[in-house]
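Lab manual, section 2.4: Encoding a predicted structure.

Procedure: take the sequence of the chain (95 residues), apply the prediction step described in section 2.3, and record the output as C-alpha cells. A sample record is shown.
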Amino acid sequence: MSEVLTAAVEALNGRLSGGFPGVAKFVIEGEGAIMLDGSGARIGDEEADVTLSATRETFEGLLSGDVNPTAAFMTGRLAVDGDMGMAMQLGSVLS
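Recorded output:
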C-alpha cells in the first residue's frame, strides 16, 4: 500500500465524526484512491456519488490546510465529477 494513501486515510478518519453521508472517492494521481462513506475512509476504488481528483501535492495541501478546496477547484488543481453538493460537503472535511 502507498504510504501517502495510508497517511491520508488516517488523517481523514481523524476528521470524520460518524462517517460521511454518501459515497465519495479521492483519486490521487500516481498513488491510488480513497473511499469515504458512512463507515469512514479506506483505501479502495469503487463507484461513488462524487469523485475528486488531484495530484499528490494538491491533496497533501488540502489535508494540511495549505490549499483551499474551493480555490483548488476554481484553478483546476482539483477536479470534481458527480454530485457537486456532496463535493461541497467534503470541503468541510478538508478544511
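Check your result against the sample. The chain has one domain: 3-87.
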